[in-house]
Specification:
- The structure holds two protein chains of two kinds.
- Helix content of chain A is 44%, strand content 18%.
- Chain A is an alpha/beta fold.
- Chain A has two domains: 133 residues, Rossmann fold (3-Layer(aba) Sandwich); 131 residues, Rossmann fold, CATH 3.40.50.
- In chain A, strands 2-1-3-4-5-11 form a six-stranded parallel β-sheet, with helices on both faces. In chain A, strands 7-6-8-9-10-12 form a six-stranded mixed β-sheet, with helices on both faces.
- In chain A, helix 5 crosses helix 6.
- The longest helix of chain A has 26 residues.
- The radius of gyration of chain A is 25 Å and the shape is elongated.
- Chain B has twelve helices and 36 strands.
- By secondary structure, chain B is an alpha+beta fold.
- The radius of gyration of chain B is 51 Å and the shape is elongated.
- The longest helix of chain B has 65 residues.
- Chain B has four domains: 198 residues, Exo-inulinase, domain 1 (Jelly Rolls); 186 residues, Beta Barrel (OB fold (Dihydrolipoamide Acetyltransferase, E2P)), CATH 2.40.50; 94 residues; 164 residues, Histidine kinase-like ATPase, C-terminal domain (Heat Shock Protein 90), CATH 3.30.565.
- The chains are: A alpha/beta, B alpha+beta.
- Chains A and B meet through helix 2, helix 7, helix 8 and helix 9 of A and strand 5, strand 10 and helix 3 of B.
Chain lengths: 329, 728
C-alpha cells in the first residue's frame, strides 16, 4: 500500500510533465520555413519575373518567401535594413540582389556568421568561400558578347559607338563592359568606342544628361550601348530630345523599357532570364537547408530581346507581370 | 484553520485578477465588434489625425494631402484593421507624368516597400493611361486594367468593398466615368484604408468614407457583371501589340519632352563671380538641397538660392531641377530672383560635405549641403510648423531649423544633451540666425538628423539622486549594525542574569544552609573547645564564600540602564561604603529616564563606583555629591568631594585612575579629574549617547589611536593642584 501511495503522485506528476512538454512541443512547432528574397527594388519588369520564379519554386517545396525591397533602386541603406530582417525574424535563408558589391560584404558576412544560407544574385561580392554562400548570376560575359555581336551585325563591322552606364560599384556591370569590349576588339576591330561614360548612381537623369552630352559632342556616333536599365532609359530619352530617334541605334541591357523595341526606337535589349535566376536561387537555399553542397556559382544565360521575338512564348515570362496567388507565397 | 484561511487569500486574489482580465478582454472584443464598419464621414487631411506613413514624404496641403515622392509604392494609411464593408472616395491628382496613384481598402500588414501590404488598390496609371483595380499581397495581382486616355488633372475615385465584391469607379472633370467590378473568391475580409502612389507625386482631397451594403454595391456597379479573379499562376499575353503601342509610347515621349535639358545652362560656381552690373538672365541645373523654407539648388561647382514669385509646385530634396531667372548676389552666395523652376527628375543623390561648426561659422560654406554634428541644448517651435534646435560644438553655437512638414518622421523626441549628426543647408541668413548665432542648418526633414550619442547618464541630478540613495543605504546599514550590536549585548546581559540567578539559587543558598548548620553545631559543641574553634574557622570560611558569591551576583547583574537607576546605584554604593561613618551623601539626577546604551551605562557606573570608593576610603571628605545629567546626546557624571585631594601625576598615575581612563576611552567618553586641597576632588565623565552607537564609539577610538597613540586614555588630567591620595 505504501509503495502504491507514493507512486501515485509521482505518476501523476510525470503525466502532468508529459502533458506540459507535449503542449510546449505543439506550441513550439514551426510552420513552413521562410526565405527572405530581397531584390534591388520591386514592381519592375526585371524583378517581378524573378519574384515569380522564386515564389513558384518555394511553393512547390513547401517554403514561404518574404518579398520586399526599397522603393528606390539605389537605396543601399534600406536594402541592408531588409537584409537584417532575416536575422531579426529568424528566416531560414536569404536571396539578395545587392545594390553595391563592396557595401554588402559586411551585411552578408553577418548573415553567414549566423549560419544562414545566402544566395547572391546579379552580382559577385568577391567574398571568400563559405558553404552557405553561393551565387546565381546572369552570365554577364555572354550578355556582353550578345550586345557586341548585335552591334557588329547592325553596323556591318564598321562605325563608332558610345558605351554608357559603366558602374564600377557593381561587379556584374564591370564584367558586362569588359566582355563587350573584348568581343568587339576580337570580332569587329573596325568598330570604335568613341565614348565610355560612367553612370554610377543608377539614376535616369544622370544617364540622360550623359547621353545628351555624348550625342551633342560626338555627332557621328552610329550606336549607343547602354549597360544598365537606367542607362537604357536615359539614352532613349536623350535620343527623343535630340531628335535623333531614328539615326542612332540603341542597344540596352536589362528588361525595363521595352515598348520602344516594338516601335524600333530601341533596337534590342539584352535581358536576364529572371524567372530562372529566382528558381535556381531558391533551389540553392533548399539544398543548403538539407545540408547538401551547392555549386558556388550558377550562371544563367541571358537573351537578346528584339522586335521579332518580343512576344514569343519563351520571352514573355521574362518581362511580363504574372498572376500568382501571392498571399500563399 | 488559520493556515487554510491564509492560503485562500492568494487564490481569491488570482481569481479576481482573472475575472478582471476576462472582463477587459470581453470589453475589448465588444469594442472590436462594434468597430467593424466606419461611420459615414469626411476624413481630415491633417496628418496628425491617425495617418501612418509607410515610406515616401507626406505633407498636408491646403485641404489636401500631398505625397511628395516619386518612390515606388509609398503608402499613407488610416482607419481600423477591423473595418469590413465600406467605401472610400477622394479626388486624386497625379503630379508627375509617369506613374500611378490611388486608394487602398481592406489593408493589413503594411510595411515600407513597393507592394508590401495585403489589400485592394484602385487608381490611375498615366504611364499607359490605365485605370487599375487589383490586389497586393507583397506582390501585385492586376484584376482589371481599362484604358482611360483623357484623365489628366483631378479625377474622382471611389473604391467599394462589400463581402467578396470589389468595385471601383473613376470620373474625370468632364463627367466621363469608368467602372471596374471584380469578385475575389479568396477575398481579404477586413482592413484599413489609405493612399498609395508609384513613381509619381500625387495629391488627394475631399476624402470621404462610409459603410457599404449590398444595395450600395448594386447601385454602384449599375448591372455590370463582375470579373472573377483567377489566381492560377500564369503570364498574361504580351500587351505591346502594335495596335496598343501608342498607349505606351506616347507617355514615354511626353516624359522625354518634359525633361528635355537646356543645353545652355551655366555652372553655378561661375555665377558667384558675376558683378551686380553684369546681372542678367541665367539658367542653371542642379539638385535641390532644401525646398522649404527656402529653395537651394546645388551642382558640382556651387550652390544658389532660388527665389520664385509664386509657388513652385512639388519640388523636394533630391529633385534635379532646371531654373531660369535674374541673377543677383547677396553677401555670400548668388541668388536667382524671379525664377521659374522646372522639375527634371526626382531622387538624385546628394553627397554632403563634412565640416565642423567652426568651419561653418566662417560663412564660406553658406548655401552648401553639409554634414556636421553637435550637442543639443534645447528645442523650440519655429515659424511654419518648423522646429528650432539650439546646438553647440567647437565653441560655436548654432540653430538647426527642421521642417516638420514630412509626416514620416519627427524630431520632437530628441533629448537635450544628445549628440546629433545633421545634414542640411548652411545659411547665415538673419531670418534664421536672428543675428544671435553665426549660422543655421536648414534641415530638410527629421530623417536628416541622426542621434549618434545619447545624453550623458551622469547629470548633476543623477549624481545627487545616487548620492542620496547611497546615504540612505549607509544610514540603514548603520542602524542595522547598531541593532545587531544591541541585540548581542542584551543577549550577553540575559546570560549574565541567568548565571547570577543560578549562583543565587545554588551556591548562595547552599552557603547559607551550611552556615546555619555550622552555627547549630558550634552551639552544640560548647564544651569541646578544639571542635568549636574548627567550626568557627569553617563558619568564617563559609561566610566569606557566601559574601563573595553575593558580590559576584551583584557584579554581573545588569540592573542599570538609565540615568536615575545609575545615580541610585551609585548612591547605594556610597551608602554601603559609608556604613557607620559621617559622610554626607547627595545624589541627584537630571534629564529624562531614557535608556542609555548598556556599554555606556556600565562604564558610567564603574567609573562612578571607582571615584566614590577613592573618595570614601582615602579623601577624608565629609560631603560627597553625585550628579548624573542625561541629555539628548550626552550623559555627564560629576562626583565631587571636599576631601584632601591628591597630586595628579599624568606619567605615573595609579591603577585605579588608569582603569577609569581606559573604561572612558572604550566608549569614546571624556574623563576629567581635577583635585586640590581647597576644593577637594572632582571627577567629570562626559559620555556620548543617542545616535552614536557602541560600534561607532569603537571606530572613533580606533581612529584616535591610529592618529595619536598618546590619546589612548582619552582622559584629561588637571594637575594644577598637587594632591594625591588615590588608589594606585
Amino acid at each position: 500500500m505504501n509503495s502504491h501511495s507514493t507512486c501515485r503522485p509521482a505518476a501523476a506528476g510525470f503525466a502532468y510533465l508529459l502533458a506540459f512538454v507535449s503542449l510546449l512541443a505543439v506550441g513550439c512547432h514551426r510552420g513552413p520555413q521562410t526565405i527572405a528574397v530581397i531584390p534591388r527594388t520591386c514592381g519592375t519588369r526585371l524583378w517581378e519575373p524573378f519574384h515569380l520564379g522564386a515564389a513558384t519554386t518555394a511553393r512547390e517545396n513547401g517554403l514561404h518567401i518574404y518579398w520586399n525591397a526599397p522603393t528606390q533602386e539605389n537605396d543601399v541603406e534600406k536594402q541592408i535594413g531588409f537584409a537584417r530582417l532575416t536575422l531579426e525574424r529568424h528566416y531560414s535563408g536569404i536571396v539578395i540582389a545587392p545594390d553595391e558589391s563592396l557595401v554588402f560584404r559586411t551585411p552578408v558576412q553577418r548573415l553567414l556568421e549566423g549560419h544562414i544560407p545566402v544566395v547572391v544574385v546579379d552580382d559577385n561580392l568577391g567574398l571568400p568561400y563559405d558553404p552557405n554562400l553561393s551565387y546565381v548570376l546572369n552570365d554577364e560575359v555572354a550578355g556582353g558578347q550578345l550586345a557586341a555581336r548585335r552591334v557588329t551585325a547592325l553596323l556591318h563591322g564598321k562605325g563608332s559607338i558610345a558605351l554608357l552606364g559603366i558602374n564600377p560599384k557593381l561587379q556584374s556591370i564591370a564584367t558586362r563592359e569588359r566582355s563587350f569590349e573584348e568581343t568587339l576588339d576580337r570580332e569587329a576591330p573596325g568598330i570604335r568606342i568613341a565614348a565610355s561614360e560612367f553612370g554610377d548612381d543608377l539614376s535616369v537623369p544622370h544617364e540622360q544628361q550623359i547621353a545628351e552630352d555624348v550625342l551633342q559632342s560626338s555627332p557621328r556616333i552610329d550606336a549607343i550601348v547602354a549597360l544598365s536599365g537606367s542607362a537604357t532609359r536615359g539614352a532613349y530619352y536623350a535620343k527623343i530630345d535630340s531628335g535623333k530617334a531614328s539615326q542612332v541605334l540603341l542597344i540596352g541591357f536589362d528588361q525595363d523599357l521595352l515598348p520602344p523595341i516594338r516601335s524600333g526606337e530601341i533596337d534590342s535589349v539584352v535581358i536576364q532570364n529572371s524567372p530562372e535566376i529566382g528558381h535556381r536561387a531558391i533551389e540553392n537555399i533548399l539544398s543548403r537547408l538539407k545540408h547538401n553542397p551547392v555549386p558556388q556559382v550558377v550562371s544563367v544565360q541571358p537573351f537578346l530581346l528584339t522586335r521579332e521575338n518580343l512576344d514569343s512564348p519563351w520571352a514573355s515570362p521574362m518581362w511580363q507581370n504574372a498572376q500568382f496567388p501571392w498571399s500563399e507565397q | 484553520m488559520s493556515a487554510l484561511r491564509l492560503s485562500r487569500k492568494p487564490v481569491v486574489a488570482a481569481l479576481a485578477v482573472l475575472l478582471a482580465a476576462a472582463l477587459l478582454g470581453w470589453w475589448g472584443f465588444a469594442r472590436r465588434t462594434h468597430a467593424q464598419t466606419p461611420q459615414f464621414s469626411a476624413i481630415s487631411t491633417d496628418l496628425s489625425q491617425g495617418w501612418i506613413p509607410f515610406g515616401g514624404a507626406w505633407r498636408s496641403g491646403p485641404q489636401s494631402i500631398i505625397g511628395d515622392s516619386e518612390d515606388r509604392g509609398p503608402k499613407l494609411m488610416n482607419g481600423s484593421p477591423d473595418w469590413k464593408n465600406y467605401f472610400v472616395e477622394a479626388d486624386v491628382r497625379l503630379l508627375g507624368i509617369y506613374g500611378d496613384a490611388g486608394i487602398i481598402v481592406r489593408s493589413t500588414g503594411e510595411e515600407e516597400g513597393v507592394d508590401s501590404y495585403h489589400g485592394y488598390f484602385a487608381g490611375v496609371r498615366n504611364m499607359d493611361n490605365s485605370f487599375l483595380l487589383g490586389r497586393a499581397d507583397y506582390g501585385w495581382n492586376l484584376f482589371i486594367a481599362k484604358s482611360v486616355p483623357n484623365f489628366a488633372g483631378w479625377y474622382h475615385l471611389k473604391l467599394l468593398a462589400y463581402q467578396c465584391s470589389i468595385a471601383a469607379e473613376i470620373t474625370n472633370a468632364a463627367g466621363l466615368k469608368e467602372i471596374s467590378y471584380a469578385n475575389d473568391p479568396h477575398c481579404l475580409t477586413q482592413g484599413r484604408f489609405g493612399f498609395k502612389s508609384y513613381e509619381t507625386s500625387a495629391e488627394w482631397k475631399n476624402v470621404r468614407i462610409g459603410p457599404a451594403a449590398q444595395a450600395d454595391l448594386l447601385r454602384f456597379t449599375e448591372g455590370l457583371a463582375p470579373v472573377t479573379v483567377n489566381y492560377d499562376s500564369h503570364v498574361p499575353e504580351s500587351d505591346y501589340s502594335t495596335s496598343a503601342l501608342d498607349q505606351y509610347i506616347d507617355p514615354l515621349r511626353r516624359e522625354a519632352e518634359e525633361h528635355k535639358f537646356q543645353l545652355r545652362t551655366q555652372p553655378i560656381g561661375t555665377l558667384g563671380l558675376i558683378h551686380s552690373a553684369d546681372s542678367g538672365q541665367a539658367t542653371i541645373r542642379g539638385i535641390v538641397t532644401i525646398a522649404h523654407p527656402v529653395l537651394y539648388v546645388q551642382d558640382p561647382t556651387g550652390t544658389i538660392l532660388i527665389k520664385t514669385d509664386s509657388s513652385i509646385g512639388p519640388v523636394r530634396v533630391g529633385d534635379e531641377v532646371e531654373a531660369q531667372g535674374v541673377l543677383s548676389n547677396d553677401d555670400l552666395s548668388p541668388v536667382l530672383d524671379h525664377a521659374t523652376v522646372q522639375l527634371l527628375w526626382p531622387n538624385s543623390q546628394i553627397l554632403p560635405i563634412v565640416v565642423t561648426p567652426f568651419e561653418l561659422a566662417s560663412g564660406r560654406n553658406s548655401g552648401r549641403f553639409v554634414e556636421t554634428d553637435g550637442i543639443l541644448l534645447s528645442q523650440s517651435a519655429a515659424p511654419n510648423r518648423s522646429l528650432a534646435l539650439r546646438i553647440e560644438n567647437d565653441s560655436q553655437e548654432f540653430y538647426a531649423i527642421v521642417s516638420n512638414d514630412d509626416a514620416t518622421t519627427s524630431a520632437a523626441h530628441l533629448q537635450p544633451g544628445s549628440r546629433l549628426r545633421l545634414r542640411g543647408v548652411a545659411s547665415s541668413d538673419p531670418a534664421f540666425t536672428n543675428n544671435l548665432v553665426p549660422f543655421a542648418i536648414l534641415v530638410p526633414s527629421p530623417a536628416n538628423i541622426q542621434v549618434i550619442g545619447p545624453p550623458p547618464r551622469w547629470t548633476p541630478m543623477h549624481i545627487a539622486l545616487v548620492t542620496g540613495i547611497l546615504l540612505l543605504l549607509a544610514g540603514a546599514l548603520h542602524l542595522l549594525l547598531s541593532h545587531i550590536q544591541r541585540w548581542r549585548h542584551e543577549a550577553i546581559l540575559r546570560e549574565r542574569e541567568r548565571i547570577a540567578l543560578e549562583i543565587h539559587d545554588t551556591l548562595a543558598q547552599s552557603f547559607a544552609g551550611i552556615a546555619f548548620q555550622l552555627q547549630a553545631m558550634r552551639s552544640d559543641a560548647v564544651a569541646n573547645r578544639p571542635i568549636r574553634e574548627q567550626l568557627e574557622i569553617a563558619l568564617n570560611m563559609v561566610r566569606r564564600s557566601h559574601k563573595e558569591a553575593k558580590q559576584s551576583i551583584k557584579s554581573i547583574e545588569p540592573a542599570i540602564d538609565n540615568g536615575p537607576s545609575i545615580a541610585e546605584s551609585l548612591r547605594q554604593v556610597a551608602e554601603q561604603l559609608n556604613a557607620g561613618q559621617s559622610l554626607a551623601i547627595h545624589s541627584t539626577s537630571q534629564g529624562p529616564a531614557r535608556r542609555i546604551p548598556q556599554a555606556v551605562a556600565e562604564t558610567i557606573f564603574r567609573i562612578g563606583q571607582e571615584a566614590i570608593f577613592n573618595s570614601a576610603r582615602h579623601s577624608g571628605a565629609t560631603t560627597l555629591d553625585i550628579n548624573l545629567d542625561v541629555q539628548r546626546n550626552t550623559a555627564q557624571l560629576v562626583i565631587k568631594d571636599n576631601g584632601t585631594g591628591f597630586i595628579v601625576d599624568t606619567d605615573h598615575y595609579g591603577f585605579g585612575l588608569r582603569g577609569m581612563s581606559r573604561r572612558a576611552a572604550s566608549v569614546a567618553a571624556h574623563l576629567e579629574v581635577s583635585s586640590s586641597p581647597q576644593t577637594g576632588t572632582t571627577v567629570v565623565l562626559s559620555a556620548p549617547i543617542g545616535q552614536i552607537s557602541v560600534l561607532s564609539q569603537r571606530s572613533i577610538r580606533w581612529f584616535r589611536q591610529f592618529s595619536d597613540p598618546e590619546a589612548d586614555t582619552n582622559g584629561k588630567f588637571n594637575n594644577s593642584d598637587q594632591h594625591s591620595h588615590i588608589d594606585r
